[in-house]
Amino acid sequence: MLSKTTLSCLTVFMLLPVARNAAAEGAIILDKAFPKHDERVRIQVMDDKGNPVTGADVSVTYRPGSSVSATDSLGQTDAGTLLWTPTDAGIATITATWQGQGQPQQSSSTTVSVRFASAPIDGIIIMIAAGLVLIVGSVIRVYKLVRAPDFN
Question: Against a cut of 0.70, is the pTM above it?
Answer without folding.
Answer: no
